[in-house]
Amino acid sequence: MVAQDIAEQASNDGLADSRLVAGEGPGRWKRIQAQLAHLPIFKELPAEQLEPIAKGTQEVHALRGTTLFHSGDPCLGFHMLVYGRVKLVFVSSSGLERVVRLVGPGEGFGEALMFMGRNYIVTAQTLVDSLLLHISRDALMEQLEKGSDVARLMLAGLSERLYRLMGELEAYTLQNGVQRLVSYLLQEWPGEEGTPFRIDVGKSVIASRLNLTPEHLSRTLRDLIDRDLIRVQRRNFTILDSAALRQYGALPDTRA
Questions:
Q1: 174 exposed, middle or buried (CB, 10 Å; 0-12, 13-18, 19+)?
Q2: What is the pLDDT of residues 226-248, one digit of tens each?
Q3: Which one, of 193, 185, 192, lies nearest residue 235 by Cα?
Q4: Strands 108-109 and 77-83: what pairing?
Q5: Which of 45, 54, 62, 144 has a CA that sits 20 to 30 A from residue 214's CA?
Q6: Are 201 and 102 in contact (CB under 8 A)?
Q7: Which residue has the higher pLDDT, 161 or 176?
Q8: How many C-beta atoms surround the C-beta of residue 128 within 10 A?
Q9: Which is higher by pLDDT, 155 or 223?
Q10: pLDDT score of 6
Q11: How distant, in Å, are the alpha carbons of 64, 80, 127, 189 from that of 16?
């Protein structure tokens, strides 16, 4: 998988602190170019088109809990997550958070606002130690003006994001809490029954993302456990019977 390849390639990078990696030179941007080449939005670009974008990209090593930007900050580019996990949240005037998106490896965020010239409307924070790439708006726009395939790839990526958001909106509108949780677990599930997988975010974050109260989430998880559909040990989840889990959530089997 792309995300696994990216994470394995980046696993040797230390995360001593939250910083932009300093220094110029061919070694640095060649490494960045290799990382960009793994990401879905850039993987089809030839090296000569990717090279100038890589030279306008910075690596961001961020420890868990690092705020990458706040709502209202200027958007001067967009981020791609190499490994780790990032939450995008709305923060109310009273300090309450609502998670609107959980970003995983290989995914980007901020593209639409960058193109619109708008400030960020959400706050982004890392949930685990993470490596991100920040692609400069100026470097990207220069390539777009040259008529490269970047525009086509970014349009495809944004269209896919919009399609996914429409699906999530449909889920929030038509699905109940049990169905939203079951859908989320099946989305995170690697596909092997009886094999544990880790969801590296806390239950409070999951509850916020699914528009559930923490109490509702806990009750629903307990019900699924009592029915021998899943097993939960801290942040490690195991799906014991995917067909029964889908049936319990009244969800169709969308596997190919």
A1: exposed
A2: 999 999 998 999 999 999 999 99
A3: 185
A4: antiparallel
A5: 62
A6: yes
A7: 176
A8: 15
A9: 223
A10: 41
A11: 11, 20, 16, 31
